[in-house]
Amino acid sequence: MCESKVKAPDRPRTGDYAGVIHPSGKWWLEPRLQSKVVARTQPPKMKIRASVVCFVVICLQWSVSAHHATALQYDIAKTVRLKGVVSKLDWANPHAHLHLDVKDADGNAEHWDVELGSPGAVIVSGLSRAALSPGVTVTVVGYPGKAGSVTGPSGSEAPLCATKVTLSDGTTAEFVVGI
Question: What is the pTM of this model?
Fold first, then answer.
């Protein structure tokens, strides 16, 4: 039988604590520093806190503007009934939007931005993205935007919050609108 007679290396004697022996006598437990500690370059705690507070305020502002009360934007004391052709469908959260071309009593074209529920709520109500595609004729009942409010990229569409949508084949969907 051959045994190795390799001796463990002596404990290192470098750094600020060289020569200090741990109370247990075990050299591997003593702190060994190879170089001096460099000051941290992290910003002070106040700068971090201020950054976090700013971030939270910005996030809250976005969420507040995304979740609005219906009564703030729409006149819930009035109900409007429109029949028109879908010119565009915006299928995105937080609300799906139908852009509707309607003829008024004089035959003039009006453009309406009809706000529906979320795409998930529209599907649950019985409608689909395909059913609301451009060119489809729909009848919409809902609350008109408050006086002077316009939407759309050109600022020329009157807003409407839909409570009921009926397709030309008779399919009807009703939406519960928060006040």
Answer: 0.59
**Per-residue b/e over 67-103, b at no fewer than 16 CB within 10 Å?**
eeebeebbbbeeebebebebeebeeeeebbbbbbbbe
107: part of which helix (H) or strand (E)?
none
Give the residues of the chain that fall short of pLDDT 50.
33-39, 63-65
Query: Tell me: the pLDDT tens digits for 81-95?
Result: 999 999 999 999 889
The set of residues, in sequence order, having a beta carbon less than 8 Å from that of 47 and lying 6+ positions away, is none
Strands 158-167 and 109-115, sheet pairing: parallel
Say how many Å lie between the first and final Cα of the chain, rounded. 90
Neighbours of 154 (CB within 10 A): 8
Is the CA virtual torsion 152, 156, 161, 163 positive or negative? negative
Q: How far apart are CA 27 and CA 21, in angstroms?
A: 6
DSSP 76: T
- What is the full DSSP assignment across 4-45? --PPPPPPP--STTTTPPPTTS-GGGS---SSPPPPP-PPPH
